[in-house]
Amino acid sequence: MNTERVIVIGGGQAGFEAVTRLRANGFAGRVTLVSDECEAPYQRPPLSKAYLHEHDNDALALRPSSFYATNDIGLECGRAVTAIDRRRQLIELSDGATMAYDHLILATGARNRPLPTPGASTAGVHYLRTAAEASELVGALRSCTSLVVIGAGFIGLEVAAAARKKHIGVTVIEALDRPMARALSKPMSEYFANEHLRHGVDLRLNTSVSDILAIDGRASGVRTSDGEIVPADVVVVGIGVLPNSELADRAGLPTHNGIIVDRHLRTPDPHIWAIGDCAAFPLQDSDELVRLESVQNAVDQARCVAAQLTGVRKPYCEVPWFWSEQYESKLQMVGLMAASDTHVVRGSLAERSFSVFGFRSGQLVGAESVNMARDHMAARKMLGCAMPLTPEQAADPTYDLKAAVKEFSQREALARN
Asked: Contact at 8 Å (CB) between 344 and 394?
């Protein structure tokens, strides 16, 4: 009889996948998921997309509530973990209770980065990361005629697109010189800037917010860094997130923009792992630590740790990929375009069907595709098997990416045999 106890802290995608995969892999010990949110694990990507239109809470659930009992998974919702006692291998909860573990998986996620300006806590200022925040925003948008979005990242622009579909006037204020600048290539940033302008968004770049204005205790607009007042019924703040690494830090585990783990996603404590948005890990063959915020990363890291706890020891080396939907454009990204120094456009921006391939010193490091799933899948396979691709090949519309991947894979298979 397996008496090992695994506790997963965090009810997001990573935490859910960890407990689910442990059972799928045949782990027979005790599995418990502890979450400070009152809801059972749910999907977060739809919160800034479909949920703003359909606001269907039932559709958000990752599994029905009966799933956890059926699979003998302890689910402790609405309970915050306040401390980790590494010596005794216990976690302490806010109600004073303790729980013992043999293996502890930290899937604590991230939280909204707060707006550091006067008036940021005024009623009518919204953030968007949890189901509760999404529900509040849906209610606010019902009677909204003008919206200010602070931050032109993915969340901010997805909210802006959803609001424009509701015919709400939208102003987006971004401190950098282009939208989604930290994640996207310049050509792709410019494309989405033009898409938002085309749909009537007032996009203000190289601009910040100095304070939130209010009337009768509710937000009535913002004052920009150049002194202009922009009226608004609702203000949404989307200026990034901060990793929830304080619990690990208090336990004496190393942290720096996340909980630092090795290639196997383990902390220096052999009984403690970290996965998902809170984990800072070495990317593939590099010693550089990265922290990624994506469903793919959360799922694959959870599966990697679950495999190791059930007998298959392997490092985490998955190629990261992401996605976003804004208006009629489905954006799919693979790799890390921030590392690129050369960009090649393939396809037609005018027809909203194209890709941007990113290279560093002539080597493919990432790709972004709009309504071009075929390019995205080819790039994922190329990066996954380290297939060489030149900028000239990427730019050549007659070069068949799918066929090239198939041919390369066959050659590699023959070489192994």
From this structure: yes
CA distance 230 to 219: 11
Label residues 324-354 b or e (16+ Cβ within 10 Å = b). bbbbeebbbbbbbbeebeebbbbbeeeebeb
pTM here?
0.94
Distance between CA atoms of 112 and 16, rounded to whole angstroms? 21
Which of 179, 218, 185 is CA-nearest to residue 201?
179
pLDDT tens for each residue of 236-272:
999 999 999 999 999 999 999 999 999 999 999 999 9
Distance, in Å, from the CA atom of 276 to the CA atom of 300, rounded to the nearest integer, reads: 9
| Residue of 327, 132, 131, 159 whose CA lies nearest to 235 | 159
Residue 26 and residue 118: Cα distance in Å, rounded?
Answer: 53
- In sequence order, the 6+-apart residues with CB closer than 8 A to the CB of 261 are 267, 273, 274, 279, 280, 281
Q: Which letter does DSSP use for residue 186 in this model?
A: H
Report the length, in residues, of the chain.
Answer: 417
Q: Which residues of the chain have pLDDT under 50?
A: none
Q: Per 3-state DSSP, what percentage of the chain is helix, strand, and coil (rounded to 5)? A: 30, 30, 40
Distance CA 204, CA 173 (A): 5
Please check whether residue 243 is in contact with residue 259, taking contact to mean a CB–CB distance below 8 angstroms.
yes
